[in-house]
Amino acid sequence: MEKTDVLVIGGSATGLVAAMTAKSNYPDKNVTVIRKEEKVMIPCGIPYIFGTVGSSDNNILPDDGLIKLGVDIIVNEVLEVDAKTKTCKLKSGEELVYDKLIIGTGSLPAVPSWLKGTDLKNVFTIPKNKDYLDQIQQKLQELHKIVVIGAGFIGVEVSDELNKIGKDVTLVEILPNILGATFDDEFAREAETILTQRGVKIKTNCGIDEIIGDGKVSQVRLKNGEVMDADAVILSLGYLPNTELAKNMGLELNAFGFIKADQYRRTSIPDVFAAGDCAEKVDFATGKLSKIMLASTACTEARTAGLNLYELNTFSTFKGTVGIYATCIGETAFGVAGLIEKQAINEGFKVLTGIFTGVNRHPAKISDAHKETVKLIVSKQSGVILGGEVMGGKCAGELTNAMGIAIQNHMTVHDLLMTQIGTQPLLTASPAAFPLIKAAEAVAKTLKNI
């Protein structure tokens, strides 16, 4: 029976960051990662294997960082964990004893039990499993009419990538707009317009009733009665926390099925930590339980767990999840941080918004210049920034991150007005018309007049 000081279960972004953080901060400890996969996928890059990067082999999370630090990697499956004896049983028959355990088992694609036809041939999901994804890619080569169900980020990105390689793609979404759960309507409508112009057929306000076929999929029936021909169906209906192992070892789960974890990522069992998609999230703005699953959030949680294994670090706590998302459709990027306007209102906040549209280069004649729109959602009472959205060129991702930092630091619009920034013609908008600050200025004017 082998022994390790720190055992990390799960090899995706959570496992990688947790193990590297643990080894970097406790170099005298043995750190071991157990994962099912020989090669691990970069989570956010998965949709792009179908078009932009061409193959899952070009989307591999490298092991170099783990190896250089001296982290042990075991490719195996954990069948059972005995928390009392701190023993882990593997599929190979081996057993491993640990001192500290970090669970990062991630999430699995949601497949609704009520949906008939999900077991038909050529009905796919998008997991983080390289072998499965390689099989999908191989099968899709001979299939043309693809129906993607669910227009969140994965559904939109997969649809766009399949469209790039000449597939006839129809994207079906039950909400009024694609990306409608994440963006306010004016941003979601623009995303929908761009994706339609690129060749993806979009059906919104449409629920799916049934996947039809004799052995393999041939059609999809919508709730409105419409029937569409389909060679393949891709289900993009969200993800569920992968917590079967955690539940069997006696860890407490919350109402949404995530492993309960505190601000240090400690669970209900001593010396067991949880991070990533399988672990509990609490919304930064409201304190309510959250279902957000993001690789960026997973890495923050993993870092927090790795830092607090042997002593609590008051500088390294996880105070709540800020949803920070971004995607790109063609040359236009869309980003969001924190609460969008309709979410904030639904939560009971009285809000003001400020919108400014400028250009992300100066002068605007620079060849890659792109219109850039920023919307800020602000507490009417305090001026604290609750959220923000951006639509612009490919640098919009970093502007989204800047909004995320502002939210996490409880900055107000007045703080943003006084924020010192660096600008450069080829890289940023003009300092005289920087969209983030101009949007803050628009809100500040309103606040002043109240």
Main β-sheet: number of strands, strand sense, barrel status?
A: 7 strands, mixed
Unreliable segments of 5+ consecutive residues:
none
Identify the CATH class of the largest domain: Alpha Beta
Report the β-strand fraction as a percent range.
25-35%
Number of helices: 11
Q: Measured on Cα atoms, how large is the radius of gyration?
A: 23 Å
**CATH topology name of the largest domain:** FAD/NAD(P)-binding domain
- In whole angstroms, the N-to-C terminal distance is 69 Å
- Global shape: globular
| CATH architecture title of the largest domain | 3-Layer(bba) Sandwich
Give the full name of the CATH homologous superfamily of the largest domain.
FAD/NAD(P)-binding domain
Give the beta-strand count. 24
- Helix share bin: 25-40%
Structural class call reads alpha/beta
Key structural traits:
single chain, 450 residues, alpha/beta, FAD/NAD(P)-binding domain, Enolase-like, domain 1, 3 domains, 7-stranded mixed beta sheet, 5-stranded parallel beta sheet, 11 helices, 25% helix, 27% strand
Please provide a brief summary of the model:
This protein has 450 residues and is α/β, with parallel strands linked by helices. It contains eleven helices and 24 strands.
Structural notes for this entry:
- 45% of the residues are buried.
- The longest helix has 15 residues, at 435-449.
- The termini are far apart.
- The mean pLDDT is 96.
- By secondary structure, the protein is an alpha/beta fold.
- The protein has 3 domains: 2-107 and 240-307, FAD/NAD(P)-binding domain; 123-237, FAD/NAD(P)-binding domain (3-Layer(bba) Sandwich); 335-449, FAD/NAD-linked reductase, C-terminal dimerisation domain (Enolase-like, domain 1), CATH 3.30.390.
- 25% of the residues lie in helices and 27% in strands.
- The protein is globular.
- Strands 1, 2, 3, 4, 5, 6 and 17 form a 7-stranded mixed sheet that branches. It has a 5-stranded parallel sheet with strand order 8-15-9-10-11, covered by helices on one side. Strands 20-21-24-23-22 form a 5-stranded antiparallel sheet.
- It has 11 helices and 24 strands.
- Helix 1 (13-25) runs parallel beside helix 7 (295-307).
- It has helices at 13-25, 64-69, 130-140, 153-164, 185-197, 244-248, 295-307, 341-347, 396-408, 413-417, 435-449; strands at residues 2-9, 31-35, 72-75, 78-82, 87-90, 95-103, 107-109, 123-124, 145-149, 168-172, 201-203, 208-213, 217-222, 227-229, 232-235, 239-241, 272-274, 281-282, 289-290, 324-329, 332-338, 351-359, 371-379, 385-392.
- Strand 1, helix 1 (13-25) and strand 2 (31-35) form a beta-alpha-beta unit.
